[in-house]
Amino acid sequence: MSMASKPYSSPFNKLKFLLGLFLLLISVASAQLSSNFYGTTCPRALATIKSAVNSAVSNEARMGASLLRLHFHDCFVNGCDGSILLDDTANITGEKTAGPNNNSVRGFEVIDTIKSQLENLCPGVVSCADIVAVAARDSVVALGGPSWTVPLGRRDSTTASLSAANSNIPAPTLNLSGLISAFSNKGFTAKELVALSGSHTIGQARCTSFRTRIYNETTIDSTFATSLRANCPSTGGDNNLAPLDTTSPTTFDNAYFKNLQSQKGLLHSDQQLFSGGSTDSQVNAYSSNSASFSTDFANAMVKMGNLSPLTGSSGQIRKNCRRVN
């Protein structure tokens, strides 16, 4: 038998083979997410989540936006690991009291309801992080927006980070450069920043988040500003709400971008996307082409859902989303 016919006879080929085997094992050990992760272990998981989300959103349309935001605020803080759901305990300081979340992030009870239903169906199988990711998608669909396939298999964190929640979640006061940086830090392009900001086609914001804009800024339609001041006084009324999309507040569409063109962005950070800067052209594009917005938004959501998930044997599957097992 000639040397050439023995694939592993040379030390170099043997090394290549072992290296390949090693890399294969590594990739299996750090298996990334897959869309059919619960196909055999909990086949009714997705239908259960969808049904609960549809019920919650039909009961209160705003809940769709709240569940979408919950996923965003989870993923931007040390990855999509369900850390935002943890309550404060003697051992863990959660993220719920961070500036961007306190008296603001909501939808925890909906996640609790879904979790208890899934624990009855398939105990200890479906993670809280995956529930949040799927609920975000189902919320967008329930309000008329695009769908996407959610990769699954995230596991739940055993820790939270109040400091990371305070520093990593983009503030409504940011200028365009700050927004681009905050999203770039998580691997997103400026185009993806604009697409993801389109989530503000649904949901509401508190007066405290847009007061400065409606009283002090000039890049705002004056009639729009005046109408908002009625329910957002210069002092007091911090928690009074206004829709982020004044045109179609409970429909997931591209009206948000048309509002920006008319200087009717509610938040300072919204209007920054259309204020003579580098993202104006993308706002124009989405304003005139809702299909491209839907496609780009869905793709950016999948990318966001892939931020640093815990997989394999990392983390745990919480039995109660509010506390570590």
Low-confidence stretches: 1-8, 25-30
Ends: how far apart?
60 Å
Mean pLDDT: 93
Number of helical segments with 4 or more residues: 14
Trace the largest sheet across and list its strands: 1-2
Helix-strand sequence: HHHHHHHHEHHEHHHH
Overall 3D form: globular
Backbone CA Rg: 22 Å
What structural class do the secondary elements suggest?
mainly alpha
Find the count of extended strands (DSSP E, 2+ residues).
Answer: 2
What proportion strand? under 5%
For the report, how would you describe the main beta sheet?
Answer: 2 strands, antiparallel
Report helical residue fraction: 40-55%
Keywords:
325 residues, mainly alpha, two-stranded antiparallel sheet, 2 strands
How are the SSEs ordered, and which strands pair?
Elements: H1 11-29, H2 45-59, H3 62-75, H4 108-121, H5 128-142, H6 162-168, H7 176-184, H8 190-197, E1 204-206, H9 207-216, H10 222-229, E2 241-243, H11 255-261, H12 268-272, H13 280-288, H14 290-305
Antiparallel strand pairs: 1-2
Helix pairs in contact: 2-4, 2-5, 3-5, 9-10, 11-13, 13-14
Task: Provide a quick synopsis of the model.
The chain is 48% helix and 2% strand.
How would you describe what is shown here?
It is a single chain. With 325 residues, this protein is an all-alpha fold. It is built from 14 helices and two strands. A two-stranded antiparallel ribbon has the order 1-2. Helix 11 packs across helix 13.
